Amino acid sequence: MAAPAIEATGLVKTFGAFTALDGVDLTLPRGAVTAVLGPNGAGKTTTVRILTTLTAATAGTAIVAGFDVATHAHEVRRRIGLAAQDATVDHLLTGFENLVMVGELHQLPRREARDRARQLLETFALTDAADRRTEHYSGGMRRRLDLAVTLVANPEILFLDEPTTGLDPRARAELWDVIESLVDTGVSVLLTTQYLEEAERLADDILVVDHGHIIASGNARDLKRQLGRDRIGVTVIDSARLDEAGDILRRVCATEVEIDRSVRTITAPTSTGLGGLTTVAHALDDAGIEVEDLALRQPTLDEVFLALTGRPAE
Amino acid sequence: MTETLESTADTGTTLHEPRGTLHDSWVIARRGLIHMRRQPEQLSDATIQPVMFVLMFGFVFGGAIKPPGGGSYREFLMGGIFAQTLAFATFGVALSIANDRKNEIVDRFRSLPIGRGTVLGGYALANFIKATLPVVLMTITGLAIGWRIRAGLVHAVEAYALMLAFVFAMIWIGILLGSLVQTPEGVNGIAFAVLFPATFVASTFVPPESMPGVLRVVAQWNPISTLADSLRHLFGNPASVPTANSPWPVVHPIPYTVGWIVAITVACAPFAVRAYRRSLDD
Ligand SMILES: Nc1ncnc2c1ncn2[C@@H]1O[C@H](COP(=O)(O)OP(=O)(O)O)[C@@H](O)[C@H]1O
Ligand SMILES: [Mg+2]
Description:
The complex is a heterodimer. By secondary structure, chain A is of the alpha/beta class.
């Protein structure tokens, strides 16, 4: 078993009297995607900046790609790629020029840097825009270029700080595809995001951060199981019988239920799994209530976040 | 996007050996030069503006102003506009630093495996080259309107060397300014508030002897004046004529200017580097 890509312990970062990170432990397995999920101001960027040597931790240690960020920053930088929160491509340079410049700064010989640039432009569907200045790129194109720039030197570890924030749904879906294809190459990825859906879709492991603390971790399924029991959802056809159906669920599941009148749906937590579902189905049938939809589902990560922090994810 | 990406982890990442700070700085400097080409206002500051100044002042004031000690005003003017243009190099460096911070591209550079001084070296190199462009253009324009190098090749070479040394000093001030002020707007503001008066209250366009009281004294001690006069002397052009009660800089413009260049470099360089590093922290 290879050493983890990142091993960080007790990371603390203070800005004056303000503590942005308050003892973060983090292990990034090789060849997997780990998401750091949290609302604005949780400390995601600060974590990434420490791990990518851009800022020094106030306390704690971080070993990235086998080297200590505090003492061997240069060795770390040779092995990582960073796509910062705001795409850091040069606006006055073309896509091609941006890639070649970073390639050369990664010490690639000029020819190799150019070949690599063309190859990456192709991969990221930017060949047509290769010779246009990036100031004329769309947000999605700029993000894709930023990601391409990050890959110039074949990094072992990739840091993606909120890669899809501010993108429209289509551009976001495209970028997700790109990130997924990256993962297939075996690179280790640390991704930060504010979107529960994004973490669930891309990451193997999720760390939930809030106010500089990791408040939960695990894969999406674990997290959901850890915090919320499964839910039975019933959608009735006749809204006049919603309350009646609610009473039945309350009785059968022996818990409080949530009723959403606008979609004629009742939700009740359950710990009896499919068995509970069958009981509910029978009870509703006996009462003669017609059902449009009846399902057992896991809590969403939004519900998880609410349970963890007592407030919804922003 | 359907194409598969080249495998990294299983083939093992190839690491390339460092090629040295000079190589890396040159890569960053090339970017600075591309910027100049693609920003019309920066390009015109370095090309059209000095040429226009030579032509405008040469023809408009050519008849009205008589250089001290006689001779052609156009020849007097050249040293002044050389000096003014070089002083503005400060501004170019400061602007590039402030712009890059605004675009956060510095974070990209800082996450790359390059030496600590590389990015600053890149700014310095690019701006050094940028500053030589107007010098070449002005030389050509000057020659076209009757300016001549009259004191021989050796002195002419000394004149151009002095210009480059002055640019070198100005770059340190630029780095300091760009690191302390941080926004392009702020840099613009300071340039107008400081650099313009500094180049006008000088022997740039008219001899300081023609200025009233305090202004005259300021102009006489202004290193931009003495740079202009040094160049005039070295090119064998009309220059300020010292009188019995002229201050030392007017009598000895060349050592005084060199003194300033050394002093600025020694005093500013360490602060500039420190200010730059501090401006990047956190
Ligand atoms: N340079 C800084 N100076 C002061 N406070 C900062 C600085 N950088 C970040 N912070 C604060 O630290 C907290 C965490 O910030 P950040 O890591 O950027 O959060 P996120 O990326 O999760 O939105 C925020 O409250 C932010 O205001
Ligand atoms: Mg952030």
